[in-house]
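Hey team,

Sharing the histidine kinase run so nobody has to redo it. Sequence (362 residues) first:
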Amino acid sequence: MTAPHNPHSERILILTPHGRDAVIAASLLGEAQIPTIICCDLHHLHRGLVEGAGMALLTEEAIRTADLSRLSQWIASQPPWSDMPFILLTGRGGGPEQNPAASRLSEILGNVIFLERPFHPTTLISVARTALRGRRRQYEARARLEALREGESRLKAALQAEQRGAQHQRLLIDELNHRVKNTLATVQSIATQTLRNADSNDEAYASLETRLLALSRAHDVLTRENWEGADLIEVVTQAIAPYRGRGGERFRIDGPEVRLCPRMSLAIAMAIQELATNAVKYGALSNAEGGVVIDWSVKNGVTPPRLAFRWCEEGGPIVRAPKRRGFGSRLIERNLARDLDGSVEITFAPSGVVCTVDAPLS
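Structure output:
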């Protein structure tokens, strides 16, 4: 009904359109430091109630035969904390016990005090102050209700946040379990294929260690990003880090900023590791002159956009296509294509190995 700290919250609305009752009442209440406003009609009174008031002072003759529908509706629509007090000035013997009209007004006004005229000035002030004290208690009740609602709202928000947190934790646990299983499957596959294709235990140990370290570096990149993805430039930089020191700068890297999902990050990191290992053994990184160009671009205009990634060796020994594909080639062409949901091609050109990737960025 009234906003907190409403300047109108304790004023008294006076509706006594006949005689000098309004002026006298306003003067007496003003001497008691009680703010008042004189209303000229019921419409003015209704507007004052809507704006805010502490109570209303009416005369019986002002409302006995008037249309009180708007006033009645306002009284009925008060919030639970509000019960607007009314003082009704009546003639001698005009209380509801002897006056049926006053009884009807009592039912309409609800919280009403009948004050018979003539009355002593101190009686009016005393009744008004009592009514205002009751109104202040209503405001206090409103403040407590608002505090309770705010507390309930905060509690609901906290509970919802806790539920979201629990759901997110459950999701993270499920995701962690999934990643652990995938990682173990990847390690198992790497170990099996490495041991199967190695010519000696030393070679198997070295290859297995190199591949597991590559997998570990890729995981480090994703861990720093909370496994939400990684920038392609960082994935490439970490993957080639062990080979940068071989004869100086051997890599040229060029490409726009691209964000990869965890699955793509791991797949490309493992592919670069296999390509670099092969380049060190047989390709462009096996001599002092060779190098590798790594570049990529994004094909927009399609949904989703596609990544075009290329590894191109140059300056190394003349390349001859192998009679059979080793585990590294199969890992790149099959596993990378599957993990990226795209196409991967390795070309053993005489000038150097070229690996191209075309995959959706989803």
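The two ends are 55 Å apart (CA to CA).

Ping me if you want the raw files.
A.
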